[in-house]
Structures are given as structure tokens and as C-alpha cells.
Amino acid sequence: MQSLIEAQKKLLPDLLDVMQKRYRILQYIRLMQPIGRRVLSNSLGISERVLRSEVQFLKEQNLLIMSSAGMSVTSEGNELLHILEDVMREVLGLKDLEKKLKHTLHIEDVIVVAGDSDLSPWVKKEMGRACVACMKERLTDKNIVAVTGGTTLAAVAEMMTPDSKQSDVLFVPARGGLGEDVKNQANTICAKMAEKTMGNYRLLHVPDHLSNEAYQSLIEEPTVKEVLQLIKSSSMVIHGIGDAITMAERRKTPEEDMEKIKARYAVAEAFGYYFNQEGEVVHKVKTVGIQLEDLEHVQHVIAVAGGASKAKAIKAYMKQAPHSILITDEGAARALIRE
Amino acid sequence: MQSLIEAQKKLLPDLLDVMQKRYRILQYIRLMQPIGRRVLSNSLGISERVLRSEVQFLKEQNLLIMSSAGMSVTSEGNELLHILEDVMREVLGLKDLEKKLKHTLHIEDVIVVAGDSDLSPWVKKEMGRACVACMKERLTDKNIVAVTGGTTLAAVAEMMTPDSKQSDVLFVPARGGLGEDVKNQANTICAKMAEKTMGNYRLLHVPDHLSNEAYQSLIEEPTVKEVLQLIKSSSMVIHGIGDAITMAERRKTPEEDMEKIKARYAVAEAFGYYFNQEGEVVHKVKTVGIQLEDLEHVQHVIAVAGGASKAKAIKAYMKQAPHSILITDEGAARALIRE
DNA sequence: TATACATGGACCTAAAATGTCCCGCTATGA
DNA sequence: TCATAGCGGGACATTTTAGGTCCATGTATA
User: Fold this and answer.
1) Which residues contact B41 (CB under 8 A, 6 or more apart)?
2) For B99-110, what is the mean pLDDT?
């Protein structure tokens, strides 16, 4: 199979381009369906006319259907996308990127999806899809999955689908309030994931800034305590990685912490922890839930982050998480390798 | 892999056609290099202009070079052809034919090459190439290879190349004179093979029609006797299969034998043996060398024959040679399966 | 040295791809 | 209920490409 594609690259590179184009179109339609020509052509950067021809073709192949609401992928089209997924990764050179990333970042497993989420927001969804596939591969019988917040994780949640095998999954937020926007909060995402997978969830209601005493009494509450217990025993953690300054600014970080973060050259953020270039923790938001050292005992840790702008953060964070699975995009991957 | 190709076909219905076209062009060039556009386009049945475009493309891909003498395949092109060989067999459905042939002929191993040697003479060369590859796979340390005559075997000889591993091969003619044309005689072919592989050879000089007494004294000759000894101990036999009547006519078969061959409904010929539809010997040319019953003790027996017109003969011969390896072409294979 | 065969340039035509503009339909939300 | 944004699709001019045809020029070889 490898050799077939290699050979095809030599013998018909022109056709592979066409294949790639059609694949992208179909893939994007799946992501955004139902969608119309105009929006689609804009998003893909293809002139509307050529898109129209391609779409016409794909329709004749029964890969998509058109309705007054827009175009959607048929089940046949879905199947095709699935079969070709691996091939296209090869064709697009993503496999190659993965190999290089494993080497430069010294990590064991990485998945790179096409595109750059800085440039095209839908790439986040593709990372989401990849993450979901990755999760499904690894989820066994009964599982507790802890998730963090962030726009990337929101994309993951959006792409979640019920697992055909069994849906005995319990979602919990990994850590208490970190000061995010509501729709990007761990709690929200946690609930959404459970809803999409028809699984269960528990939430952790911990106000952002609390006095120490209030804290202590809160975590003694039975309901809170139970959730904390679940979190500690989770078998999978899914989290995003952010740029330190951006994250600090987005959250209502107190002035003094902000100073600290900047003074210590934090570049990456994850779980409410801030890391410098070397992957060392320079600051942490005080809240309950999973702590960095707990990760070691979690079976599967999946980090999801993409976009060239996050390359530095990813690099820093990954320095201290060699056993995490990284799901990223082409933009970040290329930036990482360039360095 | 099949599903991959199916999927590609959905997205790019003419992918395989183009791939096949380019492959054929490259393959043919390798066969005939150096070769010019006119001859090439004629042989392949492609208009000269489209051939020109394709060739231009292949040149840009560094798969072939053009010189004033004509076009030749580069080493990169050769490599590609090699990689693609297996893939194309699959794509062209040859693997499928092989499977069916194994079943209908009850034989263990068969290789089918594309084309029909009745229609395009160069297909014989492809069979030759396949036969050579097959031989190389099976030849071990020191070997004695016995070969027969015929145009097909001549093609095999032509495609022979020195073996990189070792060339400690001794070629001998399988049987004495059978009345063939000089350039298709076993002796000639035997010598040619040795020359091409940089191996050694021994010849067997036995006049065609000899009195019994002369025969007896001849085979007592030390030089003849030695060669006969070698023949009997050969580890590989390569032979063609012919249509009985055609072969009988080509050789200066005496009137009475001719009658016999026809009266007994001979359809196949190999080694100077004539077989009827059931694979029973109905006549044999009297000469020295390997006898049919000796084949059982030979490690590798390879039969090479192609062209739809030979289907009947192949079928008949194979009935009594289930352990032979058959190398044939698409034309013969399809005819065989049709029956 | 003539000949045959090689490539490569030039130009024309047919056909396919693409750009442009517009129309009628329908789902949606005020 | 109705306005409207967004949908697919028709029509046609224009550009680009593929392919047909012919010929010039160079170079081995008999």
C-alpha cells in the first residue's frame, strides 16, 4: 500500500492533486453539512465555478447529495472518506510530518491533520475528529474521561459521536474553574461530550476565586468530594495547550500572577499550569482536580493543540510530557519542525 | 489494498486507465529501448501525439531519457516499474486470473502477464521476463538448468540477465535434435542463456534422423555421455508448450508420424512428446536427453506458453504436469477460463 | 555519403474547463 | 404570514488544454 502510493506519486502526481482536491471538498462538506457552494468555495479557496464542477462530479458518483438546504455527504461518501483517510495522510505528507515530530519532540504518538487552525478555523474540527477517533481506539470497557476547557476542546466535543460498541463512559472536568468563558469551560465541554456520546457526566462547581477557608470547606462537601474522587481515578485525560500570555489574558488573571507569568517567561499553558520554554512549571492556578503529577498515573493523556502560533507552547509543554499523545495540525507541525 | 483502489476509482474513475497507460508505455520502452516515438506509438496503438505528451510527462518525472537514438528508461524508471509490477498485476486483474487458473487447471503455481502473444509479439518477452524472475527466485547455489527450443524459449533467453548473487549456473539442452529451426533450437537457446547470464553451457550434438546403430554408438561417445549425465541431474527444466499440429508441421515430421499424431488427436507438444486432450502421450520423437518420466525427479519444472491459440495445448499438457510452474499470458489465461 | 529514424517546434482545431451573470426555489426567522 | 438570505442550477462567453498534422533538423549506421 505504501509502495502503491509512492509509485502513484511518481506516475501520476497530477491525478493525486485532483484526488486531494476532491477529498478536501468532500471532507469539508462532511464537516459543515449542509453547506452551499458560495460558503464552501470561499472556505476552500477554490473558485466557485470549479467547485461547482467538482461537486457535480461528486454528486454523480453518489458521494454527496444536494438539497435546497445545501450539500451533504451520503453514507457512501462517508465510507469513502473513511477508507481514504489514511491514504490521504500519506499523500499529503502528514505521515512524514508525524515521523519528524516524533523525533524532534521525543514523543511516542502524534497525529497531524491537514491545514492550519490559525488560518482556517475548521481545522480545529478536524483535530477534534482525529481526537475522537484516537479516543475510541483507546477506550475500553468502563472509563472515566477527564477534560479541560478551551476552544480546541470545544471542537473535540462537537465532533464526538456515540460509540457503537458501548457508551459506558463518564466525563468529568479535569480541574475546577480556571476563569474561562462559559462555553469554553471544562464543565460545559464535559456536559456536551456526554450528551454527544450518550454517556454520563459529573460537574465540578467551584467558583473561581475563593478564600482558603471556603475552599477547604467546599472540597469537604460530599458531592464535590465524590467528583474529585472520580477525577483522580480517570483513565483518560484530554486537554488543550495554550499560549501562556494569551491564556493568562483571557482568564481574569490577577495583576500579580500576570507579572509572575511574564517575569518567568512562561510560554505554554495547560490545565491551569504555566510552563517556560524548558517545560518547567512557573506558575499554577490554584484549584481542585487533577494536578500535573497525577498525569503520570493516567493511562491515556491526549493533548490537542494546533495552529502555527501555538508551536512554541506545544514544544515547551511536550518537553515534560513525553508519554502524552499529541494531536495537532499541519501548521503547528511545520512550525515545530522548522525551528 | 483492493478497497483502496476501489476508493480511488470512485474519486478518480480514470485513474487506473491513466496509470495503466503510463505503465505500459514505460514497460514497453524498457523492453525495446532505445525506441522512437513512431514505432512505439504503433506498437501500443496510441496516437503519436498523445504518446508524445505522455512521454514528455514521463521525461519530466525523470523516468525516461530521450536521446538521438530514442527513448530509454532511467534507473529511477526501472525501479518504479519494479515496484509497480505487483500492483499492476492486481489492478489489471491478473492476480485474479492466476487464482482461477490454479483452480481450473489444478496446478500449484502460475504467473500470468498482460497481453496476448498472438496479437502482440512483445508479450512473449514479458513472459520471458517473468520466467527469468521466477527462475532467479528458485535458483540456489549451483544449478543445472535444462532448456528446450521454440520461439517462446528464445524470448526467455533474450530477457535473461546475470544474477547478482551468483552465476554458477550450467545450461544444457533438455533433449537432442527435434528438427527445429536453428535459432529456435535448444542448443542455440542454451548458449544464449549462458551468454546472457555469464554462466556456462554444454551442447548436445545429435543429428535429427539417425539409424538405430548410429544412435547407440553416438550415445556411448564420452562427450555426449557426459552431457547426458548432466541433463539427467538437472535441477530445473524450462520448456515451452506447442500446438501439436503446428509443431509437427514445423519440424520435418515423417509422413507416418504425422498420420499417427493426427489419428490420435494430439493437441499439445512439449519436449518432443505429443499429447492428446487428456494429457496422454500419443507419440514421442525419438531422441536422447530428458524423458517425460524424468521430470518427476526434477526440482523445478517451468512451462512457458502464451497466446489464446495455445490454450488447448496448455490445458492438455498441464493435465499430466500438476507440479509444473506455468508462465502464460492474459490471452491464453482468459481462453482457458472461458472453456 | 545517403538513408532511416530520432526529437522537437509550430500551428490549427475541437473540446473541456472556467468565469460571469442571473433565475427561481425554499427554509427560516421576524 | 411574508421578506429574505442562501440554496442549486441554467446559460453563455472566454480561456486553456489536448490532440492532429506537418515539417525541420540532427545523428547514427550501412
Assistant:
1) B47, B48, B51
2) 92
Taking the Cβ of residue A337 and every Cβ of chain B, the question of whether any pair is shorter than 8 Å is answered with no
- Tens-place pLDDT, residues B139-194: 877 789 999 989 999 999 988 887 766 557 899 999 887 777 787 889 999 999 98
- Nearest residue in chain B measured CA to CA from A22: B11
- Please check the confidence at residue A220 and state whether its pLDDT lies above 80: yes
Among A245, A244, A308, CA closest to A280:
A244
Average pLDDT value for chain B: 89
Upstream peptide bond of A173 is cis (omega within 30 degrees of 0): no
Structural domain count of chain B: 2
Co-location of A277 and A159 in the same domain: yes
Contact B11/A83, CB-based, under 8 Å? no
A74 with A104, same domain: the answer is no
* Number of alpha carbons in the 13 Å side-chain half-sphere of residue B213: 0
pLDDT at B165: 60
Show the beta-strand stretches assigned E in A55-155.
Answer: 64-67, 70-73, 109-113, 143-147
pLDDT tens-digit map of A244-263:
999 999 888 888 899 999 99
Q: Looking at the structure, tell me whether residues B243 and B146 fall in a common domain.
A: yes
Beta-bridged to residue B273, according to DSSP, are: B270, B284
Task: Fill in the DSSP letter of residue B299.
Answer: S
Residue B49's pLDDT band, with cuts at 50, 70 and 90, is very high
Which amino acid, residue B189? I
**pLDDT of res. A167:** 59
Domain that holds residue A45: 4-90
Residue (of B185, B190, B224) closest to B206 by Cα position? B224
Q: Could you give the angle at the alpha carbon of A128 between the alpha carbons of A126 and A129, nearest 5°?
A: 65
pLDDT digits (tens, 9 = 90+) for A172-183: 999 877 777 777
Co-location of B81 and B143 in the same domain: no
Are residue A76 and residue A187 in the same domain, yes or no? no
Helical H segments across chain B, by residue range: 2-11, 15-32, 37-44, 48-60, 75-91, 94-105, 122-138, 151-159, 186-197, 212-218, 222-232, 244-250, 255-263, 311-318, 330-338
Q: Name the pLDDT band for A122 (thresholds 50, 70, 90).
A: confident
Element (H, E) at A275: strand A273-276
Domain shared by B112 and B256, yes or no: yes
In angstroms, what is the C-alpha Rg of chain B? 21
Tell me if chain B has a CB within 8 Å of the CB of A81.
no
Q: How many CB atoms lie within 10 A of CB A49?
A: 10
pTM > 0.90: yes or no: no
Which bases of strand C have any atom within 7 Å of the beta carbon of a protein residue?
Answer: 5-8, 17-20, 25-28
pLDDT at B2 over 80: no
Query: Does the CB of B84 have a partner CB in chain A at under 8 Å?
Result: yes
The last residue of one of the domains, among B49, B74, B90, is B90
Residues A45 and A112 in one domain: no
Q: Tell me: do B136 and B28 sit in the same domain.
A: no
Output the CA torsion sign for A36, A42, A43, A47: positive
CATH of the domain at B235: 3.40.50.1360
Contact flag, residue A47 CB and nucleic strand C, below 7 A? yes
Q: What is the CATH number of the domain that holds A26?
A: 1.10.10.10
CB under 8 Å to B57, separation ≥6 — which residues?
Answer: B22
CA distances from B190 to A55, A99, A214, B185 (A): 61, 51, 98, 8
Mark which of A59, A90, A121 sits at the end of a domain.
A90
Torsion of CA B282, B288, B292, B298, to 10 degrees: -170
